[in-house]
Amino acid sequence: MNSQDIILDVKGLKKYFPLKSGGLFGKVQGYIKAVDDVTFYVKRGETIGVVGESGCGKTTLGRCISLLYEPTAGDVKVYLDEGVLDVGNMNKEETKKFRRNVQMIFQDPYASLNPRMTVLNIVGESLLVNDVAKGDEMEQMVGQIVQKVGLKVEHLRRYPHSFSGGQRQRIGIARALVINPQLVVADEPVSALDVSIQAQILNQLKDLQKDFGLSYMFVSHNMSVIRYMSDRIMVMYAGKLVEMAPREVLLNHPRHPYTELLLSAVPRVSRRGSFRLVTPGEPPDLLNLPQGCVFNPRCKYAKEVCKEVAPSLVQVGPDHFVRCHMADELTLTGI
Amino acid sequence: MMKDHEMTDKDTANTTDDVLDGISTLSKADEKIYYASQWQLIVWKFGRHKLALISLILLTMMYIIAFTPGFFAPYLKEERFKGYQMAKPSRVHIFDDGKLQPFIYDVELKMDQETFRMYYEENPEGDKYPIRFFVRGSEKYPLFIFFQSDMHLFGVDEGGPPIMLFGSDGLGRDLFSRIVYGATISMTIGLVGVTISFLLGVILGGLAGYVGGLFDAVVLVIIDLLQTIPQTPLWMTLSAAVPRDIPVAQRYFMMTLVLSLLSWTGLARVVRGRLLAMREEDFALAAKGAGASTFRIVTKHLIPGFTSHLIVSVTLAIPSMILGEVALGFLGLGMQKPAVSWGVLLQDAQNIVAVAHQPWLIIPAAAVILVILLFNFVGDGLRDSADPYVR
After folding, report:
1. A115–B291: do the CB atoms touch at under 8 Å?
2. Top-level CATH class of B55-66+182-386?
3. CA distance A36 to B113
């Protein structure tokens, strides 16, 4: 792979949350493997969509990438215009550089804005703490970005409580973009919004991507949104990456049974009758993962080997990776 | 129709979205709310809470009185009136011959035929002594430590009987004046004590919540231990350990320490809990993602997030301190005579015979009840308005 084209390279990323018993001498009773051995990359200027059901670790993955959580293990490299950052061991200066270039958009537009700060201070905070600008200069930069995301300069002195959900999310987007980052992790940026507002925000994000030459890591549980936004799609299940492929390939020719399951759940106008895979079993218990392939209890194609040996991620085509023993044998239905 | 629509769209061509257009057509009142900070919202909401607002005004007035007792009390705290021991409260007549002129009558000494007790009774045939405002007293009293004054808010001319609104005690001292003087100690001991426990609570609770780990566990165990000890017996033990012959100021300080030693635990828990909860809030994470330092996150995002809740806890903690001082004083373990506090004044009302014959001796308890009620009303109002985003 040419390091010129990629901006983020992640190898074997793990995030385990220790489970402690309470009290003064609490012991670690086990780990929740929220993200387990995830390997992927993001190309410059593209959008990679991360999709999966609730609790599959997609948000944790996004937070590890933007370093809001400290990863337990793994090798994360960010290729910026001004050099490579090895995220595992950065000094203070490099951490600052990382924060300037990797930003995050949060899911909940209500919880992610401090109700006690004005729009100016919320959006301008990264400029201030990174010594980029302050005072009038900061106000000017914030004013520019705020207009860019569709708000008005008059809104700068207002507090978040005066905005609707969609407007708040625009503030969140402005906060992420004001410092001119190269990679933006968008964690379900539209799932808390009305459908009509969702489309506006998604289009806005696309426009901004063009204008600023951004790379997006777009996390969502909504396959339609992922399909609309992404160049490539990653499917996660129980903390593991199960399939990663360019959008059309993944949608038309999925190679993992879980991907097929997800795709079958996407509502479509054209098709009448029911082709809807019934999902046996329940979402996985992260504390008590099954032996072998984590998906085997719910997989209708599962064989003996799936219950014993955990499959590894294999490449099955250009940019197409699957974690399934029977990727070559199955013919699965896409959209 | 269609054309009109396009026209208006052009006006806002810069902003690509129609969602935003709603904002510009808001009334002035809405506009004001949009630019209001959280504190302004709290103040507005508190202002709508009539009972709390009135209580706050009354409390403020009482604190003004507590800080300038010499002016509001007609007499000095140790001023004795010979022959007026255990005198009944003076009866104040508001109208004099249809004119608004409050006055008291002269008094005459009488004897109760059953108990052979001497007592004063007003003499409607006697001279009238009008109540005057801003009168000069017999002696100077210190005002705000540095000044001296002999001005009193009200009083009667010399030569007549003293005006004793709440009667007098066994040494012929005016009870009203002594209650006013007692307010200084009784009402401030809660404030000072709460300040100490506030500092302890915020520092220890804050560190426990933010540092976490072993420190958190140790602080929690200490809090649990302190909270298991019954409050009043521990107060009694501690205050019994304070030497009796130390100056009033020192004893006052010791008492605040004794009182706040236990009450910081509640505050520490509040601070710790809020910090733990808010550390995981999205906006705190967002600040971290923006590159803000830990210190900035704590001081700019977390602490402002729960100061309003802290103020509520503090307001509701003051009454229990005031009660603590009164209880200890009543038992003779708190402030000691010659210091004047409501607890000390209530010592006179310890035996049932005294209360039966001189019921006015329990008036200091009414003062205590009033202050505690006012604090609770204010605290309720603050609690309702502390989180302006909850409707």
Report:
1. no
2. mainly alpha
3. 97
